[in-house]
Amino acid sequence: MSQYLLSVIHDGEDLAAMDAMSPDELQAVFAAVDSFNAKLQAEGAWVFAGGLQTHEATTTVDATGAEVLVTDGPFAESKEYLGGFWIIEAPDLDAALRWAAEGSKACANRVEVRPFQEEPSQEKQGA
Amino acid sequence: MSDAHAAIERIYREEYGRVVASLVRRFGDIDIAEEAAGEALLVALERWQRDGVPPNPGGWLTTTAANRAIDRIRRESHRDAKHQAALMIEDDTPHEPTGIVEDDRLRLIFTCCHPALVPEARVALTLRLLGGLTVPEIAQAFLVPETTMAQRITRAKKKIKAAHIPYRVPEADDLTARLSGVLAVIYLVFNEGYLSSSGDAAIREDLTAEAIRLARILRTLLPEEPEVVGLLALMLLTEARRPVRVAGGELVPLHEQDRGGWDRALIAEGHRLVRACLARAAQTGERPGQYQLLAAINAVHTDAPTSADTQWDQIAELYRQLYALAPSPVVALNRAVAVAELDGPEVALAEVDRLSLQGYHAWHATRADLLRRLGRSGEARAAYDAAIAATDNPAERAYLSRRRGSLAPTEPA
């Protein structure tokens, strides 16, 4: 089993689309995401998931130098930012892509699939 | 290179895909499989030249390569546990020449053509791992620097490993969609060899032969898939015309080709396959897919003893069905060519002018020919100029230049 990060990437356009949704439409998206989450849990694929506040709530901390620098806003200037994510467990990429397709449909957004690095120690124990 | 050496390399290339696919299944790692297959070749070159080629060279290569891989994994004891585990597996799978559905090559081709890889990498990986072409050969065939091709292949292999792209035939739900990706890669390999006349001619011919070989393998493995049959038929009927497709460095269009120079054996096989597709479609009521339709179009063309005997109504109807399935302007352009034969150049020109294909040389060339037939020489000349400017293919340019030269002179403005 491998772990994959399914990220929901927001840009200005999809946020505007979300804002334009009626409460009923929004409710339908929430319900779809809830039932997707329930399915992940029921099938043992769920590791963790969450939705994030908008990028305006972001603070960057840099302790690589002598002083700790704290700055308002994200590190990378970008129109796209992470809106939420799932971490799932799947036997291979095909399975992860199937989950991603369901997740994308549920949250009405594009989903990016990225494998986690495997910890060498874990891999040895796993086999 | 001695004859024996060349013969061994030929066998090696024939067997390469099967050897590597089997090792990938067993060791779960493409790099290990390729290294081991390479080592097995060195042993084969030494031993077969001395003792002769064994009765089952593919089986011999697989066993030898597997032993080399195991030796290597043992030596590198720090290798991770997954590879250690591979040593525990007793592999009794017989080296079947063909036939079993879960053939290792079938798994591997689905890995190589995975939608999570960029299309150029899918083509390159398929030729490398299943076709046994070397990286310099693939680079030369696609006219890219060797380092670029090597990087492309390395990146794709890294992604397969890091993202855990499986070595598996997709589940039934995904099979049709994934199979169309595999067929697209094979057709791309074929067209790269067939359409482009630049680069090394021998390697280009190898590409069409390789595409046909891959399609034959796929057909053995998935005999129930009509689109596989369709693609194979399409390529055979196209390949049959290769001997007379270019003459004196100039492209010879279908209607000017010497039909006596067509490869009759390939045409007969292609026609048999098309008939099988038609019979199957009639029996199941399933609509034929795009490769079957393209094959049928080519069957109609190759069925006509002369260009004038072509059943243009059938061609136009098949393109209509193809357009309904895959509405692309290129399909509409091809249908217009048939319409010109049925309803005249004026009707066809109106259809052609509606298409926005200004960057496509065949659009300009088709317009040029229709304008020529309508006696509109000045416009035809401009269209030929545009067609020549839009293609790099020297044989195509030579043909278009000659056509332009044959136009009636126009009054200088």
Shape estimate of chain B: elongated
Topology pattern of chain B, helix = H, strand = E = HHHHHHHHHHHEEHHHHHHHH
**Biggest sheet of chain A: strands, sense, closure?**
4 strands, antiparallel
Order of helices and strands of chain A: EHHEEEEHEH
Terminal residue distance of chain B: 63 Å
- Which two chains share the most extensive interface? A-B, 16 and 15 residues
Q: Note the quaternary state here.
A: heterodimer
Strand content of chain A: 25-35%
Per DSSP, what share of the residues of chain B sits in E-state strands of 2 or more residues? Answer: under 5%
Strands of the widest sheet of chain B, in order across it, are 1-2
Q: Give a quick account of the main beta sheet of chain B: strands, pairing sense, barrel closure.
A: 2 strands, antiparallel
Q: Which strand order does the major sheet of chain A show?
A: 2-5-1-6
C-alpha Rg of chain A, in Å? 17 Å
Tally of discrete structural domains of chain A? 1
Structural class designation of chain A: alpha+beta
Work out the helicity level of chain B.
Answer: 55-70%
Name the CATH superfamily classification of chain A: Dimeric alpha+beta barrel
Averaged pLDDT of chain A? 88
- Give the N-terminus to C-terminus distance of chain A in angstroms: 11 Å
At the first level of CATH, the class of chain A is Alpha Beta
